[in-house]
Amino acid sequence: MTRTTRGTARARRHLAGVSGGLVGALLLAACSSPLPTPQPDPTQDPPPPVLTETQETVVLDAVASALAAASETNDPAGLDARVTGPALAIRTSQLAVAAARGNADLVTELPTEAQQVVIPTTQTWPRTSYAVSVQPESLQTPRLSVLEQGAARQNYRLWAWVRLLPGVTMPSFADPSIGSEAVAPDDSSLLVTPTDAVAQYADVLNLGTGSGFAETFEDDSFRTLLAERAQAWTTALEPAAGKYALTFTPNPDEQVRAVRTADGGALVVGAMTSQESMTAEEGAQVPPDTETIKALYGDKTPTNVLKVGYVDVVALYVPPAGSEEKIRVVGNEHVATSVANS
């Protein structure tokens, strides 16, 4: 988990133009005493981490308390004090589904105990930290949470989470006592910039092997699940001359979050939305299929159209520039938040 932080300053030599007379004087002076040797600037220490592991635990506990309070009443009203961004959109939808079903078993379990934390060294705001949870009691995969402080007097809030993909290998990070550097959305020290990595993955989700970026990414189980669902719906709709489509779009309202890994790459987390559409011939009916979609559908009468909107979060490991490694998906969240029948 330890990486070497490079924060050295380079020595600079300045050459100034001088008049002919002064050149002569300088040359004469050089005969009697040596010219001063340029000295490099003192090595600057890297900025310290802005949180301790203990403080990160306090933040996680505060977020957990807010989530628990909202779950007790299935009311998201107080969540925005500790939850924001795609996490707030997803949790608000999950609470609505829990209220409609009278059952909270589809609300994502987010353990507060962390097995790994990534502490920022960002001295300005916003500041973003990351935490990988222990395995949930449900024995699902651990969660990667992204927590952000927007300004000096604001609380850290849960911006997003993903479920780590089964068997995934997380990249290594600097020890929390050293801290990890935030990576800008347009950082060019990577195989591709964080913003481009999310956009390219969306293209791969949309076009599969037909995407021009398909060879840039390792295969992942999320795409396998989506392909299986697409095939199941295509087969079901075929007798009614139906069609199935699923389109992913990077969320323009949410910049990606990224942090440096020990090898000079980055962990990149980005928000997307996706739209699933199932259409059949006039007179046919396309009913909701999953428990979440049924709850969001409510008592609407099925028609020949079913459209489902999702909020998505994806976490990617992006290697450093020049690497022969591919980008790999380490986790994702894909949660239905809206349903329409026209």
UniProtKB/TrEMBL annotation:
Q: Does the keyword ATP-binding apply?
A: no
Q: For this UniProt entry, which residues form the secretion signal?
A: 1-29
Cite the DUF8094 domain residue spans from the record: 49-334
* Annotated keywords: Signal
Instruction: Name the InterPro entries for this protein.
Output: DUF8094
Query: What protein name is recorded for this chain?
Result: DUF8094 domain-containing protein
Question: What species does this protein belong to?
Answer: Cellulosimicrobium composti
